[in-house]
Fold:
Amino acid sequence: MRIFARTHQLPSRLAAGAYILQAGVTMTKYDEEAARRTHGQATTAYPFLGGLDPVTFTRLLARSEIAIGAALLVPFVPSLVAGLGLTALGGGLVGLYLRLPGMRREGSLLPSEQGVGIAKDVWLLGMGTGLVVEELLACCRRSQGH
Structure:
């Protein structure tokens, strides 16, 4: 596994990392009402989260976003590791988009006005998947002696 990020990966890692880090830091300042709203959306899409206290859930989510954002910003965190975190976060956000009522136009994957804010997070899933695939392919090529 490469220890340093590839140079061409840095712009996307920096862009996504800064965005996610800022979102996580902002979430640490949520009051109880904002935490309840965030938890409510999450439990609508992912009912198994219903057992968590809203404030605890929001703190864990904020810390996760801060950790993923920092991992992307620090170039010596391997791209495979940072990409896996980004893929998980992006996948969760795309899941919210697909599962929350009112996010999509009727009978379509296209976003409604409400859903545009979450639908755009598909770029996080794409960037994370790209990092993971590139690193796995590079690993396969090295193991084959290429």
Observations:
- The chain has one domain: 7-141.
- The chain has six helices and no strands.
- Residues 122-143 form the longest helix (22 residues).
